[in-house]
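INFO batch 0412 | record 1 of 1 | parsing
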Amino acid sequence: MLQYCVRQASPDFPQPMRLLPLLLHFSLLLSSVTARHFVLYLSPDDFKDTLPPDVDLNTDWEDFPDSGPRTGHEVDPGSWRSVVDEEFPLDASSSPDESLYASGINKMISAVSSADPRSMEDAVSEIEVAAQAGNPHSQSTLAFFYGTGCARDLNPAKAFLYHHFAADGGNMQSKMALAYTYHRQEMYDKSVKLYSELAGAAISSSLISKESPVLEPIRIHTGVEENKEALRKSRGEEDEDFQITEFQAQKGNAGAMYRIGIYYYYGLRGVRRDETKAFYWLHKAGEKGESRSMELLGEIYAMGAGLERNHTKALEWLTLAVKQQQFSAYNGLGYLHVKGYGVEKNYTKAREFFEKAVENEETAALYNLGIMYLKGFGVKRDIKLARKFIFTAFTVGQPKAFYHLAKMCQKGVGFRENLQMASALFKSVAERGPWGALSKWALDSYIKGEVGKALLLYSRLAEMGYEVAQSNAAWILDKYGEHSICMGELGFCTDAERHQRAHSLWWQASEQGNEHAALLIGDAYYYGRGTDKDYERAAEAYLHAHSQSNAQAMFNLGYMHEHGQGLPLDLHLAKRYYDQALETDRAAKLPVTLALGSLWIRKGYPNSFLVELIDSLPQFYPKVMAWVDEVIMDEGNATILTLVICLLTVLYLRERQRRNAAVLPLQPNEVPN
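INFO prediction complete | emitting tokens
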């Protein structure tokens, strides 16, 4: 976990003390973003109120971008989804390597869907030929094969080399993979350069203010079992809740129209983004006076999202929204005035609109005010105020604030230069790019039962540094085993290949703050699953999970101290960890009570047969469970056992009824025989 300590500031330097609550929140936000855990001490010296001499804010800093929205293929050319959806441009002028790449990708997806290793080999061969001809998208995919050991030998060096070639050729997913590699290796000067470019591309199409809700990739498991509730809510148009809302919208309910509109606009609840359908429903809701829809219609017209850009209509809808007391629309009006779209450019009015939006808790306006003070648009340039506004917007999750805060750390504007922090911030923004759409494709595939395709897609995202994808891919490998359609070096994965791949994925997820992943890594070393037994490394992993307040890890550490496995034999420390496990999770009461009983016996009767009995339980328990699985839980035996139990229950109840009848007391008018 990131920790921030602000040393006492002098009275003439109040700004850091006012930022203290924000800094603490900052630490919480980034604890799941950075791949390395570190402590950063902030003092008044870490804040800078002057510009570095080599930074020119007029040329080195974006303010309010002019670019319109671009399709996923335009931002992420050569993505697998664009090939399968036939968005990848293929015509008579296409080169042979482009045709081979498209053919190879389609065969690859078909191979994992039909569990056909031979087709996978054909697909990889075509992609390899195209890669050797210099096609960057083929080089990126071939790097993935070498990096995962899928249909090619596991070779990280070749994977890195091909990703490097592909990134030079413009492949964005290879840039993500390289940036993540540099970030893990703490080569922040290189990771920042790539992540800043990727983050800029990720936010380039968002013009006004209305950022999409934070679309976290869905975790398909809870750590122990499938995450059924999250999966149910991600079924898109097939979900019952969506269908009910759609029915209400069709019956004229304006609120339902708005909800359906944003499902399509942002791609929420498993619904695939569709700007045409989004506009249809939002326009109908807006005509009925639904103020939130009016504001979004203003954005759609200003951006030209799915239709021709029209700043006059954007101004009309935003003005209507404000009249309907949708005060966050002031932010959109401020944007139109700062750019001069549909109105005369007026920085003073723009600032006033942004301030009104801030008064009504519109977080994007905080960011826009920060940019105005940073650039000196209609106001005197003020680095302190710019930092305050941008930082506040960051603490509530505004993506553009993440981007500009990262840039401030990179350039040393407002803060002392900090490439490590800049890299982590840029990474969090870059992961919102169109390449992240693979996550929805993977989820849809999993829900449809296409486990092999889901594993392939999550694995692709995993090499780009998406922690949830790393966790999901590892879970599929562990949960489904040989049914995961894991493609190895030669055909399907061997048990060793599958365990090694899952182990690597859990480890990467653990580095990024996934406590369950750290726990599973510890289990792998403790039990020797997919690796050699190593109690010391198991203890390291459990300590990592313990630092994230995982009760199971605390219990495991107590057990290891109790038995001297990988940690010093120390009954006092064992008790401390057992107590912590119970304090963290009350559900641990039974195992902790038993463990404390074991400790009491060890202390009071150290060399007795009771200690020997307790120590023998770990060897005896698996044998009992194996017998239960093989004998009791066998389908035929379980049925017979159930019938026997039912028969014995009936006989017992009848016998008890007979005995009760035999001892019934005499009624008042009855005479004994």
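INFO post-check: The chain is about 65% helix and 0% strand.
INFO record closed
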